[in-house]
Amino acid sequence: MSTDTQTLDEVAVSRWLEANLPGFAGPLEVTKFQAGQSNPTFLLSTPAHDYVLRRKPPGVLLKSAHAVDREFRVQKALADSQVPVAKMHLLCEDESVIGSTFYVMDHVPGRNFNDPTLPELEPKQRAEVMDEMNGVLAALHEVDINAIGLTDYGPPGNYFERQVARWSKQYRASETEKQPDMDQLMQRLADNLPEDDGQRTLVHGDYRIDNMIFDTYGTACRAVLDWELSTIGHPFADLAAVIMQWQMPVGAEGRGLAGVDRKALGLPTDAEFIAAYCRRRGLKGIDNFGYYLAFCFFRMAAIIQGVLKRALDGNASNPEYGLKLGQYVPVFARHGLEALDRDA
């Protein structure tokens, strides 16, 4: 049983899968995915089939974080919906097997785009990928949570009130130095909560293009990944998360669209993406969007603060990247304040 996030006990995993997964047959080859900072993820290759194993990191963790059991449940529930997800196989909550809870799902072949400028595509394909991203998001928010058994997947009440409180608490638990902008942002979000408009849908919690797998040669989405932050909540948080990401700098670190000539590249403007989403869901528009955008900047700042804390503590999935990512906490906080000021 290993406590190392970078490796996996191949013998223990193979033995457990042989006993529990019908059709599984080794030899097993394990490769760690470098993407993803929260839950270490591994490709499990066998001669007949490829799987993916996603585990909680070992060690002392923040309460409610790294919820791979929730990831498993929500993707299994979405199996027959209009939202593309990988096929779920098994959830193992016996920590004696590899040291923490894990689940196994199908590996979905296809393309993953880390850069929203989509440099590998032509303008027409870029537009199609972004429209597909928009359509999958709208479909997610139209899922009947009662019909797929997720009514209890999130508590009732004002989603933003709940989330601001939760992530403020998580941030304080992983705080490593004082960030005045973050303190101000948390206070302003708590003081200016939007009224509950009754929308209660499944939300992904980290919806962005690098958490999606697309056809190898086409533009259809094959699977939405990384459901750790999913819950029952307010759909505008997911929509604002997309816009938040696009306001980041271009490049491998920011992975945004700031300063890009989107029309020339075939990419939608923020307003066009929001309008297409509203058309798909039959909405007339969205008031107070600056609050939702600021909330997303705040939540991401809290998340990367947690990544930084784990890197400093020595149990991050990718410690070097975690330390680098931690430098963006004040940047996200500042962007959050600016979003609130623009909408004030």
TrEMBL record:
<feature type="domain" description="Aminoglycoside phosphotransferase">
    <location>
        <begin position="30"/>
        <end position="253"/>
    </location>
</feature>
<protein>
    <submittedName>
        <fullName>Aminoglycoside phosphotransferase</fullName>
        <ecNumber>2.7.1.-</ecNumber>
    </submittedName>
</protein>
<dbReference type="Pfam" id="PF01636">
    <property type="entry name" value="APH"/>
</dbReference>
<dbReference type="GO" id="GO:0016740">
    <property type="term" value="F:transferase activity"/>
</dbReference>
<keyword id="KW-0808">Transferase</keyword>
<dbReference type="InterPro" id="IPR011009">
    <property type="entry name" value="Kinase-like_dom_sf"/>
</dbReference>
<dbReference type="InterPro" id="IPR041726">
    <property type="entry name" value="ACAD10_11_N"/>
</dbReference>
<dbReference type="InterPro" id="IPR002575">
    <property type="entry name" value="Aminoglycoside_PTrfase"/>
</dbReference>
<dbReference type="InterPro" id="IPR052898">
    <property type="entry name" value="ACAD10-like"/>
</dbReference>
